[in-house]
Design a protein that fits this description.
By secondary structure, the chain is α+β, with helices and mostly antiparallel strands. Helix content is 34%, strand content 12%. The chain has helices spanning 12-15, 22-34, 46-53, 57-69, and strands spanning 41-42, 73-78, 83-88.
Length: 113
């Protein structure tokens, strides 16, 4: 089983994205806690993710679909044992997405203190 660390580094543009659901943002944040220190990849199962998020596996699948559509994550199956490798793109693909346009208010800017 892959170890979950107590914190993860997240991309502000992803967690502040106004069109992503809170569930997708929570999943992204959790994946950042699972990711390898050297690679932007992780291997948790949908069952384990659902347990940590307090939801069911169908919700996890729906949140992954959202993240994949924006180019924030991608998943591929490893062989025939139903395990997945999840790659985290930290928003660089999201910012290239055709509907991502900061000038139209699609990017959340945090107030300066």
């Amino acid at each position: 089983m892959q170890k979950l660390v107590k914190f993860g580094v997240v991309d502000k543009d992803v967690v502040g994205h106004p069109e992503l659901s809170m569930g997708a943002k929570a999943l992204y944040s959790l994946l950042c806690c699972f990711k390898s220190k050297t690679l932007d990849q992780c291997f948790p199962s949908n069952t384990l993710l659902a347990e940590h998020l307090g939801c069911n596996e169908r919700s996890v699948t729906r949140y992954f679909k959202e993240l994949n559509e924006w180019g924030i994550t991608s998943r591929r199956q490893t062989g025939y044992d139903s395990r997945y490798i999840t790659s985290i793109h930290h928003g660089e693909k999201m910012r290239k997405h055709p509907t991502w346009n900061p000038k139209e208010g699609r990017q959340l800017s945090l107030p300066n203190k």
